Amino acid sequence: MSRQMKLIAFLQAQNCSNYPASWRHPASMTDWNTAEYYQRIGRILEHGKFHLAFFDDRLAIPDRYADDVALTIEHGIRAAKLDPMMTALTMGLATRHLGIGCTYSTTYYEPFHVARIFATMDNLLGGRAAWNVVTSVNDSEAANFGRDEHLAHDLRYDRADEFMEVVLGHWDTWEDDAILHDRASGRFADPAKIHRLAHEGRFFKSRGPFTVPRSAQGHPVVIQAGQSGRGKEFASRWGELVFVIYPNLAVGQASYKEMRETLAAAGRETTAVAPAVYPVVGETQTMAEDKLAMIENLAQPADALALLSEVLNYDLSSKRPNEPFTVEELESLSGMRNIRDRAVKMSGKPNPTMAELVKASGRGTIRELPVFCGTPARVADQMQDWFETACDGFVVSATHSPGAYEDFVRLVVPELQRRGLFQTEYAGRTLRENLGLARPARNAWRTQGDGR
């Protein structure tokens, strides 16, 4: 079989999709706080043979702008957030083949807790779970967990490296054949095949043994989306599925080549790399362009200000639009550094203005990600161009929900399948089987390179 793309749906357990204006779309459903809403989306995605539905998350309402929630609440800018794990499990229990991924932070949770909830979900779903590893972004999240401020950027990743060692160590404490269920002898499991972890490190101490057996796929698939230099190191060491953002195809080709080389150096050749995109599809080009114009007009200036303040961990209300950032201010942007670096590159200035930073980020607008707009054939053409030279698949983002996924599954998926670029059936029952990832041997992660 020729190489085929992976398709992942980018979801939020909140009042909007990752496009914050999506709730203003007339076709957006308003029952986002019900099980039926997410189960409906899951069935759509499984009908379209998507590999994975993954839920992004933040641990605070966006309130860094003016140190207030008023702007966020009034404009509905990701203003309500359900627990993503419970939401993801709700979707998983309504599907049979669709992989289910969830974001959980290494900064504000304990490794044993994260290891257990994901291992539990993986067992309950028959080996379809994935964990999107994040280090969180701002002081608002810190405040919700009783901390005065967010950890420094590189320190977060140092902590996350050890966090991964503890989680993977716990996942590997049970051997595959540890459970006997031998009623005749009265032996439930073989004690020699269940091991203590006994981890003691710089950040964590965890004894074990773990409480959850290995799943049908060994352990959950690990997703990572680090974009900074340190984040890329982390992704190359731990990520089995790597999410990226490419502003255009040329940048994507160069970045994909670099990531592939880094992954190969770390012994991670099978890892899939997938950029996030917004598809806007219509039966004709004019219909698609009309849809896009309407969707773009939903965005409001408040969306960008609230969300950019959130991810940069910086109150943008303190800057006038045409006021340049000082060197010290740029260095203080402790959130997503790739946004800061992009603004410097796009403006051609070492000290971009606040307006230039907002424009470069695309935050709060559909232009934050590449937009594939057109007929099914035209959207498939664009996806094929990227797939052949810059990625292994796509993180498909919704301009509104569930309609954007309904359109994509109805119109684009059949065209991709006709071209032999996308699966017509699932390869197996587990997420690893469907992604083409090998079932991990116990403790295999201990011998892989660290990507540095």
TrEMBL record:
Residues 68-390 form the Luciferase-like domain. GO terms for molecular function: monooxygenase activity. Coiled coil: none annotated. Keywords: Flavoprotein, FMN, Monooxygenase, Oxidoreductase. Belongs to the NtaA/SnaA/DszA monooxygenase family. NCBIfam families: FMN_nitrolo. This is FMN-dependent oxidoreductase (Nitrilotriacetate monooxygenase family). It comes from Methylobacterium aerolatum.
